Amino acid sequence: MPLVVEVVSPERTLFSGEADMVRARTVGGGDIAFLPGHAPFIGALATWTVEITLTNGSRELAAVHGGFVEVSNDHVKILSDLAELASQIDTERARRAQERAQAAVQRGDEAEAEGALARANARLAATGLTVGLH
Predict the structure, then answer these.
(1) Could you give the percent of the chain with pLDDT greater than 90?
(2) Cα–Cα distance between 116 and 34 in angstroms, integer?
(3) Does 73 share its domain with 101?
(4) Which domain holds residue 67?
(5) Is 91 exposed, middle or buried (0-12, 13-18, 19+ CB in 10 A)?
(6) In 3-state terms, what secondary structure has residue 17?
(7) Residue 71 within a domain
(8) Cβ distance 96 to 63 under 8 Å?
(9) 63 and 11 in one domain?
(10) Does any domain span residue 132?
(11) Cα 27 vs. chain centroid, distance in angstroms?
């Protein structure tokens, strides 16, 4: 029996469908994968990607900018204030945002820049581009 997966932001449901596996990165816990039959779980999401392996073997990637993952009874819910499917990400805009954030970090403007850099890196990783992590 496959997982039922939903990726939801306040504005809309970005993804709803069946999957064989979901991989996400949690705050302080690293990456975790969910398969059918997984024990109930609730965790805070780091700003990074969520990878959904669909039942047909293809993948759907999303950049999530924090939020929560909840798993119970073969249902995986990703709740994030801001999430974007890879197909909806403007890679050039994300690359420019990454460059601006890296420059701000180098200048010492770390408070806001670290978050902006994490969001840009998540967007670029979701689109399949290699990202240099800091």
Answers:
(1) 63
(2) 28
(3) no
(4) 3-86
(5) middle
(6) strand
(7) yes
(8) no
(9) yes
(10) no
(11) 12
For residue 131, pLDDT beyond 60 = no
CATH code of the domain in which 70 resides: 2.60.15.10
Count of helix runs (H) and strand runs (E) in the chain: 2, 9
**38 located within any domain:** yes
Domain check: are 30 and 74 in the same one? yes
Same domain, 96 and 80: no
What is the tens place of the pLDDT at every residue in 68-79? Answer: 999 999 999 999
Q: Which single residue is written with the structure tokens 């967007």?
A: 123
Banded pLDDT at 132 (limits 50, 70, 90): low
Residue with tokens 């959904």: 52
How many whole angstroms from its chain centre is CA 42?
Answer: 15
SS (H, E, C) 81-107: CCEEEHHHCCHHHHHHHHHHHHHHHHH
pTM higher than the cut 0.90: no
* Same domain assignment for residues 59 and 121: no
Rg (CA), the chain: 15
